[in-house]
Amino acid sequence: MGLVGNQHFFKQGWLTAFVGAMLCLVVTSAHAAEPASLKGVALIVGQSKYQHIAALPNPTNDARDIAKMLTDLGFDARSVTDRDAAKVKRDLERFAEDAEDADVALIYYSGHGIEAGGENYLVPVDADVSSLKDADQALVPISAVMGELKTTVPVTIMLLDACRTNPFPADAVLRRAPTASASPVSAGGLEPVRGARARANATATENLGTVIGFA
């Protein structure tokens, strides 16, 4: 089958086992009688057709396969591909709304991602070097959606299957807003998440935890 095929099936097998284990955790912690009574929602994002930085051949295929796997596991899964910044942000807003009555919310992202100044950013397909000058608008910071899901969903799973390299020039710096201070972009892509900001005036729910997996 070859190395690529073996890696593909290894990834699917690992993710299936991982998500299954998390569902068992929810059942145990919530004292649910039947796993089928749990409601899981998922958003799958695959970014391949980058317009101004290196394109990626695999994410759209990975997104399709992961969507099928999660659907087979009983998730209400929505898959989107090749999204610009505005569309990714709308996708995440819609997902947060759909997840409000769910037991498990899962986000799978495959594409470019970067870290700077303690924030991880998903990189939309329309991003270019100028996006780094106003990153909170031109890119997609993940702490906000994490914080929102944490207040409304018992378990949040975020799987970041992003490249471990910086797609921008090595000396590039990032500003969260045009007048903000500059931070260097990590050479290693996304970094371990250091926390999520809670949404103001949110309705609290019993939160069993957030799990974040990196490629």
Please outline the helices and strands.
Elements: H1 3-30, E1 40-46, H2 59-72, E2 76-81, H3 85-98, E3 104-111, E4 113-116, E5 119-122, H4 135-138, E6 140-141, H5 143-152, E7 155-162, E8 173-175, E9 182-184, E10 209-214
Parallel strand pairs: 1-2, 1-3, 3-7, 7-10
Antiparallel strand pairs: 4-5, 5-6, 8-9
Notes on the protein architecture:
α1 packs parallel to α2 (59-72). The strands form three sheets. Strands 2-1-3-7-10 form a five-stranded parallel β-sheet, sandwiched between helices. Strands 4-5-6 form a three-stranded antiparallel β-sheet. The chain has 215 residues and is an alpha/beta fold. 33% of the residues lie in helices and 24% in strands.
Largest sheet: 5 strands, parallel
Low-pLDDT stretches? 1-5, 194-205
Sequence of secondary-structure elements: HEHEHEEEHEHEEEE
Structural class: alpha/beta
Overall residue-averaged pLDDT value: 82
**Approximately what portion of the residues adopt beta-strand conformation?**
15-25%
Number of helices: 5
Give the N-terminus to C-terminus distance in angstroms. Answer: 22 Å
The number of strands is 10
Q: Give the overall shape, derived from the CA principal axes.
A: globular
- The share of residues in helices is 25-40%
Cα gyration radius (Å) = 17 Å
Spatial sequence of strands, sheet with the most strands? 2-1-3-7-10
